[in-house]
Amino acid sequence: MRKNLNVIAAYSIMMVLIILVGVFQSWNIALSIFNMCLISAVMTMGANIQWGYAGLINFGIMGYTALGGLAAVLISVDPVQEAWSAGGFDILMCLWLIIALVLIIRFILKNFQKSKVRTYSIAALIISGIILIRFTAEPGIEAIEDINPAKTGFLGGFGLPIIFSWIVGAFFAGGLAFIVGKVALGLRADYLAIATLLISEIVIAIIKHEDWLTRGVKNVIGLKRPAPYEVDLQSTDWFINLVEKFNSGKLEVFSNLSDRQAALNQLVIEGSSIFVKLCYSGLFLIVVIILLILTQKALYSPWGRMMRAIRDNEEAANAMGKNVVKQHLLIFILGSAIVGIAGAMLVTQDGLFTPGSYRPMRYTFLIWVMVIVGGSGNNFGAILGGFAVWFLWIEAAPIALFLINFFTAGMSETHALKLHLIESVPYFRFLMMGLGLLLIMRYRPKGILPEKIEIK
Amino acid sequence: MDILNALILLLNYIFIPALTYGSQLALGAIFVTLIYGILRFANFATGDMMAFGTMVTILFTWYFQSLGISLGVLPTALLAIPFGILFMIIYMLSIDKFVFKYYRVNKSPPVQLAMVSIGVMFVTQAVVRIIIGPSDQRFFDGEKFIIKAREFKEMTGLNEGLALKSTQLITVLVTIVLVSLLFWFLNKTKTGKSMKAYSDNEDLALLSGIDPKKIVMITWIIAGILATIGGALYGLDKSFKPFTYFNNMLPIFAAAIVGGIGNPFGAFLGGYVIAFSEIFLTYAYKKFFIYILPESMEPESLVQLLSTDYKFAVSFSILVIVLLYRPSGIFKGKVL
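^ inputs. structure came back:
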């Protein structure tokens, strides 16, 4: 108990902060912050597995998040039959061509000795393959994108419940991580960072511009939900009764029946959106807790010990007969898969998929700030980092506004500097993130909750 | 068959834009490579530092414009660039003193310095956005074109026009002058040579009496000059938007690595490699083939290898290929 005091204290402070937002701003805001905190926590757990356990630097978090989101779309959207009949055949042909190309290249790599001829023939094969694929796909893509472009214009998905996408998202992200890991893991740390960052940009470029698959920047809206809809709740009897029971004290004040009804309606509308958010919180909490249990178990298992050994001294671990390359690849896939889950959760919560919104600042660097601030190598630290940084990210604007008003209290209301500062309030969050990261790295380089390994 | 028109077409739509864009990338790439070679970390704040220098330049340009000072046909920004450089160098040196120095003295691993540079990136981004805002700023004035497309057509009687913007010429000229000065400095002066020595082998350089503080300071000064001029030229040619500058960091990194990181000359050429391949691969060659092929063989499609949406993806793919097959870059930089 005593040993975990700082963990408990840190989490209590975090909870109190969120509750304070609920009391002073609104419960709706508090719950949406809480939900996003949970999603961020999943992302940081993924990044923490890679960075904290194994010392692998992955700046491609954005790409895996987007792939998770793509999974949510492909799983939950109903298939567009006309599009399939118009261009499905061409697309499937393309898929076969790609698979054949990969198999041929694998065959060449396996059966021929490394030589210039081999390299050039593979290059020629890839280029001619790309041209062939483009020619096969083009009529199909055009046909698909022509079908009702305002509403569909893409192939759609499988029409399954969106919850499944959380698992599929993990597989998508893990698959990408397998390819990236094969290509880039041999690189030195900072090159790995740059390479993963650039690869994630390529992934985003593809998602943004392949309209037949993702609708691209036209966005996919109105995804299915795992939680009930507010509108349905507002007309359900048991929910209205529940709200009535909860607020019986508030409602008793009204003597007039119609006033009471109006107040109740208002409460039901507010309550429905809180209820939906609570449903999401429950789902997300389950994911976070399952992941936390698994990652904690892994951390203290022989496998976790081996990962730390590899992280701390690669050569020594290698000399002891541990397959460093294989373990790095494995952990790269695992961490990315967790990020993929978070990506699918994010799209599930928002109910829409907007490829244009994936930006490295928000989805890569912010997550890294969370990991570093929270404490790399410590799962509780990573989750706390997700909570604290997301909280600050959202509440930075009100805090900055308060500070600006405080420090410029002497100036007149129309002073140009004051107006300019108030106008640029949204950007103070970058300043706070940056300063927070720099201060933590300087004075508490292991994060708020540092890594602590006890041998049991 | 109309080879002359075809050539003008390529010159107008591929060669000139790529040369300009390549010059802008090259300046940024030399900045990245110098910081990497001498201070030994990947600077993720590159794009935002360039935005900072450009911002100061823009503010001075506006100030001069309000005073009524101008350079006639040349953009006023050229007059403001020295002030931008000055502020940029002060900013960089103070960041180095308060942030990077601590880690350098403690000999932290490069990854940690890269992480710290992300903190600097956040702060710089905030500073730029708070001061000048996130939206597009144009600060170009003076004569816009040296050769206008229509005038060229009338002059030569060709079908294709050739347009040459003054910013394009300025960019290329300034880059040539700046880069030649830089290479002269690095290869011929004592300080430049000691910088190279420090980059090659720090301990040996220290033993032979090279002052590391001086080296670091000069590196930041050169970096400030490159960042401001590169950023300002990009802003003059296109437009200034903080987010674009952040994004430009990626092709700049690609250029530096493709050229062989730590090798300034490689970075210089890397900028052009990236720029030319981006534009070559995404240009639609339909018109070109119409000019050079007989009528019966005219292509129907756009004859475009990749759609322009994948412009960035091209440079990143080149980078990935280079990293795979020649991790030290085309022109041999540090081996990773």
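Residues 69 and 344 of chain A are 4 Å apart (CA to CA). The longest helix of chain A spans residues 257-300.
thumbs up if we can close this ticket
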